[in-house]
Amino acid sequence: MLIKVNEVTLFYQKYGSGNPLIMLHGNGETHEIFNRSISLLQEYFTVYAIDFRDHGNSSKVSELHYEDHAKDIYEFINQLNIKNPVYYGFSDGGIVGLMLASEYPNLFSKLIVSGPNINPKGLRICSRLMMKLMYIINKSQKVKMMLQEPNISLSDLSKIKVPTYITGGSFDVITKKHLYLIHENVKNSILKIFKYHTHTNYIVDSEIIGKYIIEVCK
């Protein structure tokens, strides 16, 4: 399905029935990374799985910024009149979730974010160096955004009032120190570290995160 927001067209798929659940993927991915989890989640939720702008079947753009992603998703929710959805975001999707929950404290019923960072320094040094090399080679706007953004302050995090669940892998590209920093500054939050997992492997083509979402939303 297609929807026009903020002068771009977003592609999304809708599955199942029940309370609304919005799912947003990470950088360079599409909603399809959640297919295995959606097969479980659609029994409990009406799932809206969205492709960010310049990803998947959504509109291509010349520049990318997290703020534009956040505006797109806010408009998506308003246009479809989705009331108090659960929000799940992975990586870039998690960043956008933190931004929206900070700016609109009553928008979500629950916020679940996996592997988010509030600034580029939250990434391990080796990951940042690799990204810099990638950008030198391909000048990708997706990589440029990760190198320069986000810039979410601790004051922004303190504005989040909704019950929040933060996850990471024990071998995540986001440092544990950074995940704990987010957890400590979001008052009503729980942090779960998935042992022996990376940034992606408990989420991409996995049922693990779907089971976790069901568990925390019971």
Automatic annotation (TrEMBL):
Residues 19-120 form the AB hydrolase-1 domain. Keywords: Hydrolase. It comes from the Bacteria. GO terms for molecular function: serine hydrolase activity. InterPro entries: AB_hydrolase_1 (IPR000073), AB_hydrolase_fold (IPR029058). This is Alpha/beta fold hydrolase.
